[in-house]
Design a protein that fits this description.
The chain has 693 residues and is of the alpha+beta class. β11 and β12 form a beta hairpin. The relative contact order is 0.05.
Length: 693
Amino acid sequence: MPDLLLELFSEEIPARMQAKAADDLRRLVTDKLVAEGLVYEGAKAFVTPRRLALTVHGIPVRQPDLKEERKGPKVGAPDAAVQGFLKATGLKSLDEAQLQKDPKKGDFYVALLEKPGRPAIDVIAEILPVIIRTFPWPKQMRWGERSAKPGALTWVRPLHSIIATFGPETEEPDVVKFDIAGIEAGQTTRGHRFMAPGEFTVRRFDDYVSKLEEAKVILDPQRRKDIILADAKQLAFAQGYELVEDQVLLDEVSGLVEWPVVLMGSFDEDFLSIPGEVIRATIRNNQKCFVVRDPKTGKLANKFILTANIEATDGGKAIIDGNERVIRARLSDAKFFYETDLKTKLEDRLPKFAQIVFHEKIGTQAERIARIEQLAADIAPLVGADVEKTKRAAHLAKADLLTEVVGEFPEVQGLMGKYYAQAAGEDPSVAAAIEDHYKPQGPNDRVPNDPVSIAVALADKIDILASFWLIDEKPTGSKDPFALRRAALGVIRLLLDNSLKFSLAKVASSQFGAQSDKITDLLAFFADRLKVQLRDQGARHDLVDAVFALEGQDDLLMIVRRVEALGKFLDTDDGKNLLAGTKRAANILRIEEKKDGKSFEGAPNASLYQLDEEKALASAIGQVKADAGAAVAKEDYAAAMTAMAKLRPAVDSFFDKVKVNDDDPSVRENRLKLLNEIRAATRAVADFSKIQD
């Protein structure tokens, strides 16, 4: 079956747009092919700094013939309905329609329409121009003489040529003929901008890839990444160093070159007096270069690795020299910023925060720091932290936001605060907390374990959540401009990874005052975030609901432990059968409560028990309440589940032998109260009504 080769060759495709553009091209073309009945076998898109390419293989030669049955009006319908039917179907008269009998609704006309499939190449020639003209670039431009005309083509950068061929591997492919803004689809492209700028003709995908490589272009982004990483590692190793790997930078650099050539440069050793993270940020952000370190000490070396886009005749000397000049200037600036920052203590910077608004409805940054400091002091005893050290860390935690280095490189906020605190002789726990109070910032980020760091990190995150809850600016849909979901997940990880018992409602109440409804709403938000966290770990979200439904459940560690124990219990036969029995009791109660217009709460009357199964169930419920309640009080949820299991045989026997809706109203009501006791007993560990079967 034929294959399609498509290349859109332009002046430039910015690196940040490349991955999405390749995915968009594949999706748009293949979706349209399928919609036209051309089901393909496989497709893959590629992108370089100058070209967007797609290969789709296994496309049928032509569309399948379509047969459609279109229902018309009833026999004897008004002439207007008949004429509308004929016009819509293209029939000349009702003689060309078929009659379909329906004993209930009456006979009606049916048109059997056949639409022959078209050659696939003709369909593709209609699809591609529409996709190219409507391609979803985040930013587009017009160019040339045609740009002023209505309907002028827009593209990310000027589009120079289009390859579009279609045909089987064993034959010469055909050109998919179409024209966009004077650019005719053909078989011609160009190679590397400098090393092989001439035009050449290609036929199909394999031929295209091999000729591109001869013209110094590596089409596959992943292969370019592999080359850069392998060569950078080897070059560093050959000089006795170790590459500091950086996946984000690797992705970006691979989008800047079509023919990667890895080179090594150096900078003055004097710059190594700057913190390594600042050196790395300077070299990475300004020159898109990697840094290396001494494998023995783990410290950065005065070397860097760059990726050129050309095999230079001088072996890359001029390229290295140019990068060294820029890096030297950038590191000089960074060294000046760092040394200037050291001249002013963190504490002396704090007064400026009184003039900096954090949020117009929340107040200044100084007011926020004061709240964090107070909240951190309240949290400190709960997590085993020294109160004075915690207050000191919270007091200084945001100060480095006003330093020169952080102003230049925001990604090192907190870290620079730690360095400046260490230089000023602050306690090690205080210095560490200044860096760590932002953590964890993502699922793979490190979780602090020093008590002072934990206290300040919790205070920072709880304050920002409470502040935005108070002004009713919560995350909506995909919008979360203040990263509140991340803050909540950070609180969850801090508590769970450090096995900390912690009442969220009690701690948050100091921020909310009397607005208990907002505390409840925030706890519901934490429940949702916890469900996401546990679901990612393979836990069932309905079990989280079942535990959160119990009153006063705001200790995340205890909730998780209860969920874990409940999940293990429900995997057993006792757990499954008890759940079924509990739900049966709940269903009966719901029906009878609706019928009687009242609930059946309150203790049953033991004197009304008539059968041994009633007495046995009542006895089991009493024992389970006592045992499970005692186990829960000790936070031994496994023991609580073991106690719950003892209820199962009594529940099974009750439903097997006892008629709940007895003819005697008093006996019936008593038995319904006994069923309610089952529900009450299981609520010692969870609300079983929230658990899915």
